[in-house]
Design brief:
Blueprint: E1 10-13, H1 21-24, E2 30-33, H2 36-40, H3 43-51, E3 56-59, H4 68-80, E4 85-90, H5 92-104, H6 111-115, E5 127-132, E6 144-149, E7 154-159, E8 167-170, H7 180-199, H8 205-227, H9 232-252, H10 256-268, H11 272-277, H12 280-287, H13 292-301, H14 307-320, H15 337-346, H16 359-368
Parallel strand pairs: 1-8, 2-3, 2-4, 4-5, 5-8
Antiparallel strand pairs: 6-7
The structure holds nicotinamide-adenine-dinucleotide and fe (ii) ion.
Amino acid sequence: MQFEYCMPTRVICGADNIKKLDELMPNGPVFIVSDRIMVRIGVTEQMKEILAPRRVEIFAEVEPNPSFETADKAAAIAREIGAIGVIGIGGGSTMDVAKAAAMLVNNEGSIEDYINGGKALANDRAFLICIPTTAGTGSEVSNVGVFTDHKANTKKPWVSFKFLPDIALLDPVMTYSLPPRITSATGLDALCHAVESYWCLARNPIAQSYSIMAVKLVMENLMTAFNEPKNEEARTNMSTASLLGGLAMGQTRTTACHGISFGLTTNFGIDHGTACVLTLPSMIRRFSPAVEEEMNALVKTVGFESPEAFACRVEEIMDETGISRRLSDYGIKDSDLDMLAELGASALVTKNSPVQLSKRDVYDTLLAIL
Ligand SMILES: NC(=O)c1ccc[n+]([C@@H]2O[C@H](COP(=O)([O-])OP(=O)(O)OC[C@H]3O[C@@H](n4cnc5c(N)ncnc54)[C@H](O)[C@@H]3O)[C@@H](O)[C@H]2O)c1
Ligand SMILES: [Fe+2]
């Protein structure tokens, strides 16, 4: 076995930690990439006050599954104010745009030059703090940003160790306002990161140890966070699960569930977490025999008799939280499966699965849940 481990991000976790921003951020102009909801509930204004007298510019135009254009727009404002620091406060979409802005403020050109053009990053990024307001992506500790390329009609990852933020500031209070449906979908995204990292070809003992705890925390806390949005313990545990899932996945990448999700999101607008978890139960059943000993150890540690019992519980959680398991409920038809199978089978992360899937395999998986 060969593996590397790189994790320079300082993690600070606890309720009301947002008040520490002044001591954590160097002096100079700060660019805040945020979410409409954070502006509406007054969090960005609060941050501005905490960061005073620094010049602070707020950008709150990030859409789910952000585009190249949004990343470029954010970068242009960051350059204009000469930002020395960037803060991303929001879900994965927002944190990813913050990462791109922090990078592009010190490097010329468009995000497209780097992702599609393969240009190398000449300079280091601005100081970067990520504050997640969903508990799902783990972007606050990952070395990747994911962006939608509308011309190619797909999502593309931008991977660089330079993306690992200086600080991941977890303040579970920021997730209290998450609606139940988003709590569930993003929490199940965290579950996918943990499980996919655990079984992937690039798996390693450090990432696997994070995955076990992440799976346990999701299975024990997601329903409470769904039913009691202001339950501090459940929210803190979900934020921690997301962090651990991100730490694991950031080292190893994901597998087929994420690979298949990209086509579901770009073509049918299915949110990221839902798109990923749709195939998780099928993949648990398909992949577990190939990593039998390790999967048995995982499911026993988190309280299940077998991978099958674990897969059934994931299906129950989807049912109990209103996430349909049927592709047809998202407007997908029989005639779409060929295209989805092609996109899913050819995605790079799909090849990181413990069993290699052909286009036919992906097609059959999708047909079974149509
Ligand atoms: N960089 C990474 O490591 C990584 C990992 C996984 C996924 N991703 C990417 O992250 C994106 C998905 O991120 P996400 O699942 O966090 O969703 P998101 O950031 O797209 O947010 C989903 C919705 O939740 C809302 N929201 C966020 N926080 C809220 C809060 N506290 N209260 C109320 N509403 C809130 C947002 O406004 C948005 O409408 C996708 O683009 C995905 O590809 C990145
Ligand atoms: Fe994900």
